[in-house]
Amino acid sequence: MRGTFKIVIDAKWCKGCGLCLAECPKDVLQWSGARSAKGYNVPVQDETKVCTGCRLCELICPDQAIRVEGERQ
């Protein structure tokens, strides 16, 4: 089963803890280098890598700042 998935990170809630980067089995997330309004480095999806939609990043985020969009086909 494959699908197209997009990882959306809400910079208002992300505190830059890095748990999502550590948990992703496909290393789809990377540090953006951009800072949120609170000064935290926020991760982004690396568009060169394929997100499998496992949603581990969503589950591990302590602040519910991550949403994975897309459906399995």
Reading the helices and strands in chain order gives EHEEHE
General form: globular
User: How big is the Rg?
Assistant: 12 Å
**Roughly how much helix do the residues carry, as a percent range?**
10-25%
Gap from first CA to last CA:
6 Å
SSE inventory with pairings:
Elements (H helix, E strand, L loop, with lengths): L5 E4 L9 H5 L5 E7 L5 E5 L10 H5 L5 E4 L4
Antiparallel strand pairs: 1-4, 2-3
Textual characterization of the structure:
The protein has 73 residues and is of the alpha+beta class. It has one domain (6-69): 2-Layer Sandwich (Alpha-Beta Plaits). Helix content is 14%, strand content 27%. The protein is built from 2 helices and 4 strands. The mean pLDDT is 92.
